[in-house]
Design a protein that fits this description.
Largest sheet: 4 strands, antiparallel
Structural class: alpha+beta
Helix content: 10-25%
Number of domains: 1
Shape: globular
Distance between the termini: 35 Å
Oligomer: single chain
Radius of gyration: 14 Å
Strand order of the largest sheet: 1-2-3-4
């Protein structure tokens, strides 16, 4: 019976808070962020959207690792993870 895991042995499916901080620091400094687990360049996708009652229009960045498929979404202007 399959355990449903990826079999990669790389641990948790989500990045740790420390890994997210590293990705954010690389991205906001203008560097191409590297996946802290796979050490491959992450792909950036912009996520736009209306304010939807938030009082401002969000512009988020979705960073995706092409190898392990983990991702992180940041609201860069606010400096927060969403």
């Amino acid at each position: 019976m399959s355990d449903g895991g990826s079999g990669s042995g790389s641990g948790s499916a989500q990045y740790t808070p420390g890994e997210l901080q590293l990705i954010r620091e690389e991205f906001t400094s203008g560097k191409t962020p590297m996946c802290p687990r796979c050490v491959v360049a992450m792909t950036r996708r912009e996520i736009g959207g209306g304010s939807f009652g938030l009082g401002y229009a969000r512009q988020r960045d979705w960073l995706i690792c092409g190898k392990c498929r983990r991702s992180a979404i940041f609201d860069i202007h606010r400096g927060t993870r969403t």
